[in-house]
Amino acid sequence: MFISPIQPVAERRDASRVVLALKAAGEQTRLRALALLTEGELAVGELAQALDQSQPRVSRHLKLLTEAGLVERAPEGAWVFYRLPRAATTERQFADAALAMLDPGDPVLARDAERLGAIRASRDEAAAEYFERNAADWDRVRALHLPEADIESAILAAAGAGLFDLMVDVGVGQGRMIQLFADRVRRAEGFDTSRQMLAIARASLDDLKAKAALRFGDAYAPPIEAGAADLVTIHQVLHFLADPGRAIKEAARLLKPGGRLLIVDFAPHDLEFLREEHAHRRLGFADREIAEWCEASAVRKPKATTLAPKRKDALTVKIWAGEKL
Questions:
Q1: pLDDT value at position 74?
Q2: How distant is the alpha carbon of residue 248 from its chain centre?
Q3: How far is it, in rounded angstroms, from Cα 166 to Cα 230?
Q4: Max Cα separation, the chain?
Q5: For residue 3, what pLDDT is reported?
Q6: Which of 76, 232, 260, 324 is most buried, judging by how many CB atoms fall within 10 Å of its CB?
């Protein structure tokens, strides 16, 4: 591309960025990687498996894509995640335009998607097995973290007094969030993908049958009518998910304008054993990350509450509370 010497500096810079993006995307493996990343952020190992290539080779491709601004690199402990740029940059616009020209029926892309689906299914199965193993002993597992009484007091403060007409709890677990808000809601609905967890929740909420309903459901496809809830809680769920931003978007979709979204999870940490022993996919979340997902879901920038650990081996718990616009 010929660039006139009298062209404005900003235009020359934009042109050079496009050329760099063209060079980076103009290779089959890198274009395939971009296509996979439309499904959400992925770790290097997951991309290598889906592309059926060695991890060092895929890492080199990802380095070029990162340098060109076509993907974002997010190191987290021993893992590194990659995703398409969140901001509407020149590079993101270029990536979207290039990906729109791909044929989803292309056999190579279809095979990549099939392998990615198998990877995710295996990961979800491992997480489900973890929940089933630990459902009856969940309190002992939660004891690895801060005292629940401290966290619950802060959760109630962050949510506000209510009264909430309908509360929805995403990933209901043992039903503790519904119990906590029992005197602040008229009705409560919770859903979970673990049937064993649902059985325990039903037992623990037996005295709330008049106002609490539980059902099987997925965070990515909530079995609740959109725009119906005044309060939606996502308590210690996001760190298990492959696509937390999508779960937040779906949760926000359930809210009425002015409804409250309450997210409880961990601040960034480096306890790698939680991945292997407790099925955690993400090692906590930064305020900026949660704020970006909320903004993309039409939720006002959430107010963050930090509950610092009282002992060295505990995790910092975060509470984010925002309103649906």
A1: 83
A2: 7
A3: 6
A4: 77
A5: 37
A6: 232
Q: How many residues make up the chain in this entry?
A: 325
Q: For residue 135, which phi and psi values (nearest 5 degrees)?
A: -55, -45
Q: What is the pLDDT of residues 225-282, one digit of tens each?
A: 999 999 999 999 999 998 999 999 999 999 999 999 999 999 998 888 888 888 889 9
| Side-chain half-sphere exposure of 123, counting CA atoms within 13 A | 19
Phi, psi of 205 (to 5 degrees): -105, 20
DSSP β-ladder status, 229-235 and 164-170: parallel
What residues pair up with 58 in beta bridges, in sequence order? none
Give the tokens for residue 85: 């740029």
- The per-residue pLDDT for range 39-48, each reduced to its tens digit, is 888 889 999 9
Beta bridge partners of 232: 168, 261
Say whether 300 sits in a helix, a strand or coil: coil
Nearest CA-CA partner of 191 in 159, 154, 237: 237
DSSP string, 240-288: G-S-HHHHHHHHHHTEEEEEEEEEEEEPP---THHHHHH--SS----HH
Task: Specify the residue for token string 């359930």.
Answer: 254
Q: Is the pTM of this model over 0.70?
A: yes
Q: Which two tokens stand for residue 245?
A: 């931003």
Residues in a beta bridge with 192: 216
Residue whose pair of structure tokens reads 């990549």 in the numeric block: 112
Rounded (10°) CA dihedral 62, 66, 70, 72:
100
Percentage helix, strand, coil for the chain under 3-state DSSP, each rounded to 5: 50, 20, 30
Does residue 233 contact residue 177 with C-beta atoms inside 8 Å? Answer: yes
**15: Cβ contacts below 8 Å, ≥ 6 apart:** 1, 3, 7
Q: How far apart are CA 266 and CA 286, in angstroms?
A: 9
Separation in Å, CA 196 to CA 193, 222, 317: 9, 18, 26
Regions of the chain where pLDDT drops below 50: 1-12
